[in-house]
Amino acid sequence: MTIHLESQSDLEEAVRTLVKRDPRLKSVLEIAGMPALRRREPGFAGLAHIVCGQQLSTASAAAIWGRLSAAFDPFDHEAVRRARTDRLGRLGLSAAKIKTLKHLAREIIAERLNLDVLAEEDADAAHHTLVSLPGIGPWTADLYLLFCLGHGDAWPAGDLAVQEGLRMGLGLKARPTEKQMAPLAEPWRPLRGAAAHLWWSYYRAVKKREGVLAGN
Question: Boundaries of each HhH-GPD domain copy (predicted)?
Fold first, then answer.
């Protein structure tokens, strides 16, 4: 059964369960405080929002998304399908991101892709579906599952802040690689998404800065 983090109370219950299951997380929670649930819009718009933020500062990503949202009402897969490539480029999207969004739009229209059903799939299977799409890497896939679908077991193994949080919080000698993150998170299944929220909060508390592009 897939667990969803739909509300703040869902997240808090999941975090308390994790702490009971793994005593190492007690001190992490004491430093981090209870994390706040972060959610974004689901569907094409939510994934497009994350794609727009790939490899950009929060401010730059927010500016581009603001221009896209203002230019298209609604900003959905049909709008992107119809939009001229040069117009999307003038709004700030790179050629690679335009290609990614155009491909996503075609897949949705052809009913080869349903982003919403991924919420009910196993986290690893849903992750695989997304990363098989051109231009969708692991970071984008995991943030979509976690923030847009509220998938309780999504695990952003490639996120540097989560990696650094684990290094500090678990007393590791070095920051774990993306490959090493998978076995480290095994004890937290099927609540790895809640664990990710906790580690982001821990990173923020220790480093005094945000570790994930979630609010733009």
Answer: 52-203
CA atoms within 13 A on the CB side of 209: 7
DSSP 48-65: HHHHHTTTS-HHHHHHHH
Give which of 162, 163, 131 is closest to 144, Cα–Cα.
131
pLDDT tens for 125-168 read 999 999 999 999 998 999 999 999 999 999 999 999 999 999 99
Q: Are residues 71 and 140 in the same domain?
A: yes
Nearest partner of 68 among 85, 102, 86, 92, judged by Cα: 92
Q: Which of 126, 149, 172 is the C-terminal boundary of a domain?
A: 149
- Whether the model pTM is above 0.85: yes
Helix (H, G, I), strand (E, B) or coil at 180: helix
| Domain containing residue 131 | 43-149
List phi, psi (to 5°) of 149. Answer: -105, -10
Alpha-carbon distance of 36 to 205, in angstroms, equals 13
> In the predicted model, is pLDDT for residue 210 greater than 80?
no
The residues pairing with 4 across neighbouring beta strands, listed in sequence order, are 151
CB 64 within 8 A of CB 91: yes
pLDDT of 213 reads 47
CATH of the domain at 69: 1.10.340.30
